[in-house]
Design brief:
Number of domains: 1
Largest sheet: none
Amino acid sequence: MLAGPIISSLVGALEGAVVVGGLSALGGALFGIGIPKDSVLQYETALKADKFLVIANGTPEELEKAKKIMSDSATKVDNHSEEAVSA
């Protein structure tokens, strides 16, 4: 699931992205929306290995449902909530 606001954030970050600290433009965009750098590096590595990255944005209940659905078939499911990112 990709929601409008998160797409806008990613596109905006990609348009103005400068490759910094070893991150690609996509990595910079993910970092710009609050994903920790160590996770961004893991995601970039996975994408280079032809794996998928799914980003879900929603209420805590919607995210829990998405996590349950993805846990059945995903190799790894991470949660980067605003509270976790701010901490």
